[in-house]
Amino acid sequence: MSKKPLGRSGIQIPQLTFGGNVFGWTVDAATSFSLLDALVANQLNFIDTADVYSSWAPGNQGGESETVIGNWLKKSGKRGQVIIATKVGKPMGEGKQGLSPRYIRQAVEDSLRRLQTDYIDLYQSHDDDQDTPLAETLAAFDELIKAGKVRAIGASNYQADRLVEALKVSEQNGLARYETLQPEYNLYAREGYEQALEAVAQQQGLGVINFFSLASGFLTGKYRSAQDVGKSQRGDTVVSRYLNPRGFRILAALDLLAEKHQTTPAQISLAWLIARPSITAPIVSATSLTQLDELVSATHLQLAVEDIKTLDEVSAW
Question: In what residue span(s) does the NADP-dependent oxidoreductase domain sit (predicted)?
Answer without folding.
Answer: 16-315
